[in-house]
Design a protein that fits this description.
β2, α2 (43-59) and β3 (62-68) form a beta-alpha-beta unit. This protein has 10 helices and 11 strands. It has helices at residues 6-26, 43-59, 74-86, 105-111, 123-131, 139-150, 170-178, 208-212, 272-275, 289-308, and strands at residues 2-3, 33-39, 62-68, 92-95, 159-163, 197-201, 217-220, 238-241, 245-248, 264-267, 281-282. Helix content is 38%, strand content 16%. The protein is of the alpha/beta class and 309 residues long. The chain folds into 2 domains: 28-113, Leucine Dehydrogenase, chain A, domain 1 (Rossmann fold, 3-Layer(aba) Sandwich), CATH 3.40.50; 137-289, NAD(P)-binding Rossmann-like Domain (Rossmann fold).
Length: 309
């Protein structure tokens, strides 16, 4: 079994990006700029934004944080989106999800200029990905494909089972892996990627275990801890675990003795301990897909800069 080390691969890619951006600076060009819009103080969102900003600064991407109160109206947020669309100094931007309940996420995402949509979530970019046209690919699917490429795991002719049908992971990763190889990603390692036969499964799928046992590659993005068990995996399969779930643990590693919060740990959607011995390749949680998602956002920002600067 080989562990697919997303932390190590992401560090390698950040070094490559830093070298390319340093070359731009030395040549007298401005560096790429990413804007991050966060609405409210959702703790998870605050953490995600901080990690993204830190990664940008590490590679030399200029980053602007735009914090809005959770009372902001949909019209006010749309006005901010339109302002960023029109700002030539901003190469790409993201609106951190989730948004407050009174704001329609689809309305906001649809208003983003697809050329600056470095999350790859606008209808235009999703549609271009589906049609095999040049696009900015959703960050997590791009990270998954990059991880497969860096470990020389081919998808051509393979059966890929995707568990989960979200617009952020399940649907776009299925579209990406079934495409002909001509759908290239700037900076992507050469590998036999695309041309997969993809099955999408979800909560209404019957006999999920039997379907999974036919898979060469299983991508699990269901948000259900331990969903994929050893009896669902055939020997030698590749397992990509996108799940991030916080569950109670008896291993109490709280930093202070007066912290009254329940002790928890991060786990994925895969029963890692029992599935790993059967797998040829498997991602850990944390340290697998997560770091690849963030570094893909940086790649997408540089792609937007190169295509439209």
């Amino acid at each position: 079994m080989t562990l697919l080390d997303g932390k190590q691969i992401a560090a390698t890619i950040r070094a490559e990006l830093r070298e390319e951006i340093d070359a731009l600076r030395q040549a007298g060009h401005r560096v790429p700029c990413l804007a991050v819009v966060i609405v409210g103080e959702n703790p998870a969102s605050v953490t995600y934004v901080r990690n993204k900003m830190r990664a940008c600064e590490e590679v030399g991407i200029r980053v602007e944080r735009i914090a809005l109160p959770d009372t902001v109206s949909e019209e006010e947020l749309l006005a901010e989106v339109h302002r960023l669309n029109a700002d030539p100094a901003i190469d790409g931007f993201i609106v951190q999800l989730p948004l407050p309940a009174h704001i329609n996420e689809s309305t906001i995402l649809s208003a983003i200029d697809y050329r600056k949509d470095v999350d790859g979530l606008t209808p235009e970019n999703v549609g271009r990905t589906v049609q095999g046209q040049p696009s900015i690919v959703s960050a997590t699917p791009r990270g998954i494909r990059e991880l497969l490429a860096r470990y020389n795991i081919p998808t051509a002719g393979k059966h890929v089972v995707v568990i989960g049908r979200s617009n952020i992971v399940g649907k776009p990763v299925a579209m990406l892996l079934m495409q002909r190889p001509y759908l290239s990603l700037p900076g992507m390692s050469a590998a036999s990627l695309g041309d997969a036969t993809v099955t999408i499964c979800h909560s209404k799928t019957q006999d999920l275990a039997a379907i999974c046992r036919t898979a060469d590659i299983i991508i699990v993005a269901a948000g259900s801890p331990g969903l994929l068990t050893a009896d669902m995996v055939r020997p030698g399969a590749t397992i990509i675990d996108v799940g991030i779930n916080r569950v109670p643990t008896t291993n109490d590693q709280r930093l202070t003795t007066n912290d009254q919060r329940p002790a928890t740990k991060l786990v994925g959607d895969v029963d890692f301990e029992n599935v790993a011995p059967k797998a040829a390749y498997i991602t850990p949680v944390p340290g697998g897909v997560g770091p690849m998602t963030i570094v893909s956002l940086l790649q997408n920002t540089l792609q937007a800069y190169n295509e439209h600067s």
